[in-house]
Amino acid sequence: MSAAEPSSSGDDARSTPPVAPATQPASLRFGEGVGMFLFSLAEASFLFILPEVLLTFFAVQGRKRAVLTAIAWGLAGAFFGALLMYSWGAGASLKVKAAFLGVIPGITRDMAHEVLQLLQLAGLPAVFVGMLQGIPGKMLAALSPHAGLGLGQFILVFLAARLVLFTVAASLAWAIAAIWRRLLPRISPLWGWGAFWLAFHALWFFGLPV
After folding, report:
1. Could you tell me if residue 198 is inside a domain?
2. How many CB atoms are closer than 10 A to CB 107?
């Protein structure tokens, strides 16, 4: 009997399935979608924290369907935010716009005048390239009426650039998180996600190049 006991206990150990780690739902929850919408809306109008923070959070979790849906929610929020800023910019003086934008971290009054000159010289391509280079969309939206850019054309170019930025950010976060899990399987990639965005916005807040 004593010889059979280890075999029995070993069989029990082998038959016990490992505990599966808790996972997030693949699809985006409604509340998460609303959060992405509001985040993107706020960033397109007055907030200086990028909506990519939330988007890359879903990507790091490995939730492909959630990421795709979040991009759609984010574009909707960006649309209304850009519409709001463009409409406000169409009725406000350049002095008022420069003063308002200058309050936002990472933006100065001199920068507003430089961006306006860029829009007047290059037109719509300046919106697309400018956003990819890091010029805040809220600034481009507010100054575009003063540069003579039409609302419909501006919104289309603005959303196209936002889609590129969302796609690149989510793809990079997804790839880096996959590599992280292979190299550091015992440490959640969310630690790296949090550290990166804290450093990024700290540098932006203090006016350093990022």
Report:
1. yes
2. 21
